[in-house]
Amino acid sequence: MKNILVIGATGQIGSELTMKLRGIYGNSHVVAGYIHGAEPKGELLESGPAEVCDVTDGAAVAAVVKKYGIDTIYNLAALLSVVAENKPRLAWKIGIDGLWNILEVARENSCAVFTPSSIGSFGPETPADGTPQDTVQRPRTIYGVSKVTTELLSDWYFRKYGVDTRSVRFPGLISNVTPPGGGTTDYAVDIYYAAVRGERFVCPIAAGTYMDMMYMPDALQACVQLMEADPARLVHRNGFNIASMSFEPSQIYAAIRRHCPDFEMVYEVDALKQSIASSWPNSLDDSCARAEWDWNPTFDLDSMTADMLEKLRKRLG
User: Fold this and answer.
1) According to a count of CB atoms within 10 Å of the terminal CB, is the N or C end of the chain lower?
2) Is 306 left (phi over 0), alpha (psi -120 to 50) or beta?
3) Domain 4-170 belongs to what topology?
4) Residues known to be catalytic
5) Model pTM greater than 0.90?
6) Which CATH number is 172-213+243-316 given?
């Protein structure tokens, strides 16, 4: 049985991934790592062990790894794109200095490591449509620069020390559980909340701006599936393109309108978010993930929309 540490367990992905992993491997085998000020609550706290685990303190992480006999680390500590652009030094400290600490702990304790990359690792010189697995990566945000560094450093630790590092390039993630946290693609979450609350939605992304998106259940499955994959099949490691759906604002609006005919949306473009979004791909080619570890998403825009609205109505009343 695996012993897993999820760092960033109270964040956008971590809060849901921790519970999914506990459902698979058992509550006592999955440790929720958090930082002061972001303590776990409710089921996340009550269902299994939790420890303070700050990636900037390698010794503290190592102590947790030894205490629980950890063999797999999901390192989800990072600032999202818009927040990172406003706090670049902190973004680097958490994303790269922190990653170095995690990889050193993994090297010394024989742990596998999952550290997500992102579509933000690409830039305007990257082919925008059907972006290949292996292509030019020249991002123009500190978030993107840190993600490219994440991929390269993780690959280096695998080649140099044999650390079992793996990652995916997440598209924009849409969740019915955790609220947005400062990402460029957050509009695709906010719009559902506005629809359920009967509010007019002000879209910060310009019409016609395509971006890859994914429903959180598929993203969580990708994490688990990649870490369970046979290493002998992995030609790539850090990070795999994964794709589910690509749309622009009017398309998600139309999908919601099929369920909420009175829903209204207007545009008020945010310059920073738009500049970031315009530098990212329109759609990704995920054929390598499909070939090397059988990646196959479940949700498309219509099925995600139906599920999002149903879940949010129940939760928000």
Assistant:
1) C
2) alpha
3) Rossmann fold (3.40.50)
4) 143
5) yes
6) 3.40.50.720
